[in-house]
Amino acid sequence: MRDSLPLVRALREPTSVEALTGSQWSELISIARAESLIGSLAHRLQNVSVPDRVRAVLQDAIEAHDLASQQALWEADCARRALADYRGKIVLMKGTAYVAADLAAGVGRSIGDLDIMVARDDLPVVESALLDAAWEWVKPDPYDDQYYREHMHELPPMIHRERDRMIDVHHTTLPLTARPTPDAQAILDNAIALENGLYVMAAPDMLLHSVAHLFADGDLAGGLRNLWDINLLVRQFSDADEEFWMELNIRAKTHDLVRELERALRLAARLYETPVYRFSAGQTQFADYFYVRRLLARDGYGRETRKLTRFAFYVRSHWLRMPPLMLARHLWTKWRKGGTPPK
Amino acid sequence: MSLKYRAAPKDDLIWHDLDSMTLLFHRPSGITHMLAEPAPAIMEVMQDASLTAGEIASRLSAQFDIESTADAENIVLARLEELSGLGLVARVSS
Amino acid sequence: MAEMHQILLKIGPAAFRIASAWRRPLEELEALYGDYPALTDSSVDFTVRLEPKKPWRRFIRPSVHIGGDFWLPDAAPLPLAQGLLAAEMGMNLQMALGWRRHLLLHASSVEKDGKALVMTGLSGSGKSTLSAMLAERGWRFMGDEFALLDLETGDLVPFPRLISLKNKAIETMQQVVPEHRFGPEMKATPKGDIRHLIPPKAAVARMDETARPALLLFPRFGHAPELRDMGQSEVFVRLTQASTNYVALGESGFEALTRFVDQVPTKAMDYQSGEQAEALIESLWSKLP
Predict the structure, then answer these.
(1) Do residues C92 and C115 both lie within one domain?
(2) Coil, strand or helix: which one is C257?
(3) Residue B78 lies in a domain
(4) Domain that holds residue C55
(5) CATH number of the domain to which A77 belongs
(6) Is A131 helix (H, G, I), strand (E, B) or coil?
(7) Is residue A213 part of a domain?
(8) Which of A142, B33, C126, C178 is the most buried (most CB within 10 A)?
């Protein structure tokens, strides 16, 4: 396999795997693992006939992800208890939110750290409550710390001393230096309460966060997974609510994410056949081609391919996050310390 | 008014006795806890009720036929706080 | 992208695809695993990748970076001459991080009369050498690195990969095993001198045959011979530390490990020579029900 297209096809159209040979299966599994989509794939293929060993691999993935999502909910509950005296809203984000809100996007999704969002003014209160409850800073590096506080959309990451789990406390969905400036207060105002007192974002905000995450966080790494989230969210939200597309368009303007939304919808429609409302997706653009190439850049051994495309996106993603001069300063500080830029 | 506590739901817990300690597997977190007395006994007498440390101490003395002393309640309270830090016991707001 | 060569291996219940930028490690693997059964179809559980970190390192001072489906961010590369070791480490890594069909214990194991002896302990305890030695003396070798416990039945499932001998153990085994069963000698690896040994034919032929765990030992080399009892709590804690997937398995791992600790008699065993160890083991084995 020369790119990740077979994975995309298997997710889109599960019966497409019935034609695979044994060695093509091995390739598909390596790609799905590398893209953190093995759990989603396993759920999609539950009713399709597959070789015995592949079935065992897929069953392993289902069980591993079941356990991971249960533990993610527990971790969210630990944060809730640690912040029991905090009166503001605690909004779950990304994978934990999908699982907590029982969305299709949560099924089989890999979940890493716990991501929560609170009001920016409340960060000091939240920070000190977490420190009291046995979370501690991951990096004692003052440069990184200052960088986070001045420019990022979150506190420096913290880790729980005993459970060894990370928490990222956000106050908005994009770095402060990024060009789009989402309206964090509007997200908090419209957040929806869960039974346990935690919150998740309202449907349009949740989707737009996923969109912001796709383009702004990193170099489109994990993009196929993020786009799969977007695909599932769009399908579920638009089926459930006729007004969804209209609200989504309004919210995209509120958050300054119209162009990003359009591109994400075009890419989702192209790769996963997401049923998108044409007005929201806009015309196909020249650059879409390069996004697709970048998203599919992985071979049958699970290796990243097309290094040049990747590098272009790495530079680009930093341009999005930081104005040019700051980028130079950031890279220089990293190089001097002998660190290497992330892949 | 004293604070009340309630043990995690029975279905969330799997108990297993070893020679000197008691293992407790907590399903929601997937964490195995290794508990020394009197923590397992405390959780056992709590059953499904919301109780204060004092009430638990008197249940313990009744069940194990030990004399209830003034410091029993303090010992129970300290263990309850540890158990609630682990999420095995919850403080109940009344 | 640079071309990759690949071979498929089946060891016990697990199937691997080993892909490498160089032929040499694969040729070595092929020679050593030549008598292992072939895969019936070519789908595998895991892919291991041996590749240069940078393209030019394929030729210039070639160094092997270990990657694959499961990987560690800080795995240091090895020189190409140690490519065989890199492949074995890559397979171990896939098992340690990715295997969920059994509870994995970092332990060696051998079998007699359907009953298994499991040996675990820190590296340097001699568990690997003891299993290799017993395998030449009437026991069936089941594995020197991982013991696989069936989650439902509690039975031990063989994982008889190549035996990895270190330092002095190489010479010890050379005295009892013919040369053709040894792999190339790798000097001064990060783990010391290493030489792989092909397990006896029976171990490979019977690699789908499970056994009932009957005795657990914590061997310790270099101390006057002695057998000691161990408390259940200590055994449980040490086995959780010796298991790479106990936490990942959740409840089924808990059930499997508590059952194992309840049912399998356990001793700590100090010894200074293979003969001493064998005598101690026989004294315990003969009294088993």
Answers:
(1) no
(2) helix
(3) yes
(4) 5-98
(5) 3.30.460.40
(6) helix
(7) yes
(8) C126
Whether C207 and C109 share a structural domain: yes
Measured between CB atoms, which of B20, B23, B27 is closest to C258?
Answer: B23
Same domain, C134 and C76: no
What is the per-residue pLDDT across B2-36, written as a single tens digit (0 to 9) for each? 899 999 999 999 999 998 889 999 999 999 999 98
Within 8 A by CB and 6+ apart from A160, the residues are A78, A134, A135, A136, A166, A167
Neighboring chain A residues of B31 at a CB cutoff of 8 Å: 163
Range(s) of the domain holding residue B54: 7-87
Residues C92 and C107 in one domain: no
CATH of the domain at B57: 1.10.10
Nearest Cα neighbor of A64 from C16, B37, C247 is C247
How far apart are the CA of A54 and the nearest CA of chain C, in angstroms? 7
A322 has a pLDDT exceeding 70: no
Please count the structural domains in chain B. 1
Cis ω for the linkage preceding A275 (within 30 of 0): no
Asked if C145 and C194 touch (Cβ cutoff 8 Å), the reply is no
Q: Which residue has tokens 């040499």? A: C24
Q: What is the CATH number of the domain that holds C121?
A: 3.90.228.20
Q: Report the C-alpha gap between C285 and C110 in whole angstroms.
A: 12
Which of A23, A30, A64 lies nearest to residue C42, judging by beta carbons? A23
pLDDT in tens, A45-84: 999 999 999 999 999 999 999 999 999 999 999 999 999 9
Cα dihedral A311, A314, A316, A321, rounded to 10, equals: -170
Contact with chain C for residue B13, Cβ under 8 A: no
Closest residue in B to C254 (Cα–Cα): B25
Identify whether residues C48 and C125 lie together within a single domain: no
- Specify the DSSP class assigned to residue B33: E
How many domains does the structure of chain C reveal? Answer: 2
Cβ neighbours of C43 in A, within 8 Å:
22-23, 25-26, 29, 51, 53-54
> Nearest CA of chain A to the CA of B57: how many Å?
25
The verdict on C265 touching B (C-beta cutoff 8 Å) is no
- Both tokens of C187, joined, read 């000097």
ipTM (interface predicted TM): 0.92
- How is residue A36 written in tokens? 């953190």
Count other C-beta atoms under 10 Å from residue A302's C-beta.
24
